[in-house]
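An example makes the point: we let one protein speak, the chain in one-letter code, the fold tokenised, and here it is:
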Amino acid sequence: MKNIFILTGLIFILMIAFLTSCEQDISVELPPYTPKLVVEGWIEQGRYPTVILTESAAYFDPVDSAAMRRSVITTAKVSVSDGEMEEILTLKKKDAFFPSYVYEGNEIKGEVGKKYSLKIESRGRMYTAETSIPVRASLDSLWFENLSGNDTLGQVWARFSDPADESNQYRIFTQRMGKDKGFIPVYLSALSDEVFNGETVDFALLRGAESLSQITDDLYFNTGDTVMVKFCTLDAAHFQYWKSLERELYASKNPLAASGNRVLSNIQGDAIGVWGGYGASYFRVVAK
């Protein structure tokens, strides 16, 4: 028995010595990173176009409020055309957004069925995109249900009848009146009718995070909340952007599940992001 303890101790010492001898400092020379233009632009029926421009950052760069402010591009020329007239958007400061500088229109308003082109001129380069505003859809009904055994938390449910024999894409937002600054995309906000074409379906709206960089597990609404629901139709290219972005965003929380697929963009030029139209319908439900 004594010999076994001695042998075990020797093996342990040899293993420590081997592992220690394998340790060494590794220095990796990272290639220089060239930032890309990041576009988030949208137009909705009855509303003016809005465009936010920032620069992308290297993977190991810090992500904080100061870095976000530095990334904002405020010197671009941004214009939108509806095929009949073209408008140069005005840079405005809006506290409802972060970063708080956005390009916004004053003349062109979105109309269902129309196409809208975007042109961005920034730092000697040009970027373009096109989108449309599809026909709006309506929810059949909304209601609130408490979680089982919980009288303070619950879910907003929706019933929707999808038009048959056509491909449709949707995106859903919610806003808690008095609590949220604006409409926030629900968890997994982009969906298509691929699996429920022409059917009537019921589904829960899981409350999304205010910031896509700070995903939380707080998915429910509180009893007493007044919740506005924004139900949008969008064209295929616009949908593919949000679908691919959300897939990567939520999968990235699990390193074993991340797909590594490219986030799809409809911006032409060496840029990333989206220019999209929304056919939006609004609803209200009280959590009780």
